[in-house]
Amino acid sequence: MDAGSNPVLAALTGFGRTDGMLMTAHEEAAVHAAMVAADADCWDGGQPCTFSALLDGWGHQVAGVEEGYAWCLADFDYEIWCRTTLARVWPLLPTRVRSARQPRLDELDERFRAATIAWPGRGGEEEWWLWRFPRLLVTEPGDPYDGGWPAGWLRMPFPKPDSVRVIT
Questions:
Q1: What are phi and psi of 85, to 5 degrees?
Q2: Which residues of 139-156 are buried (b: 16+ CB within 10 A; e: fewer)?
Q3: H/E run at residue 136
Q4: In this structure, are residues 168 and 145 in contact, taking their beta carbons and an 8 Å threshold?
């Protein structure tokens, strides 16, 4: 029985959400095995997580950063976990799946780079996304703002660059 006719396996592997790529049952099983091996097959609450949902999650985070990030640094660090998880899963995926999905990952990564600024003095690291911060930060109405880092970003170890815009 393949993932397309098995609803449980389909939910676990993301069958039908292949961005135009029809995967074989063997590839579906290999994607699921990669998710399990990378400890990425469940969300924090224990619900099954698919590879497609993980990639979509990265897309959602990128879109949020592009629109203006309204949360604090700790939340930002937490919310980009999906990119770190993708990095763990990626080398374990079947070659054909990686090749088919690489353009989407590259596009999201480039959008994230465009919407963020590199941490001063950092660069070239393997997990580069961990060393970036949003270009556009949004504060809550009524939050005090003195022109530097907004509340929730005050623990940044360097002054706010002029290229970071804060919307109050």
A1: -65, -40
A2: beeeeeeeeebbebbeee
A3: strand 136-138
A4: yes
Q: 62 with 107: CB under 8 angstroms?
A: no
Q: Report the pLDDT value the prediction gives residue 43, as an integer from 0 to 100.
A: 87
Token pair 């088919």 is found at 100
Nearest to 27 by CA among 46, 59, 48, 52: 52
CB neighbour list of residue 6: distance below 8 Å, 6 or more residues apart: none
CA dist., res. 81 & res. 21, Å (int): 26
Residue-wise pLDDT tens digits, 82-105: 999 999 999 999 999 999 999 999
Q: How many angstroms separate the first and last alpha carbons of the chain?
A: 55
CB 93 within 8 A of CB 30: yes
Give the number of other Cβ atoms within 10 Å of residue 3's Cβ: 23
Q: Residue 132 to residues 27, 36, 55, 120, 124: CA-CA distances in angstroms? A: 34, 28, 19, 9, 12
Helix ranges restricted to H, the chain: 7-13, 25-37, 51-67, 73-79, 81-89, 95-115
Q: Which pLDDT tens digit goes with each residue over 122-153?
A: 877 789 999 999 999 999 888 888 899 999 99
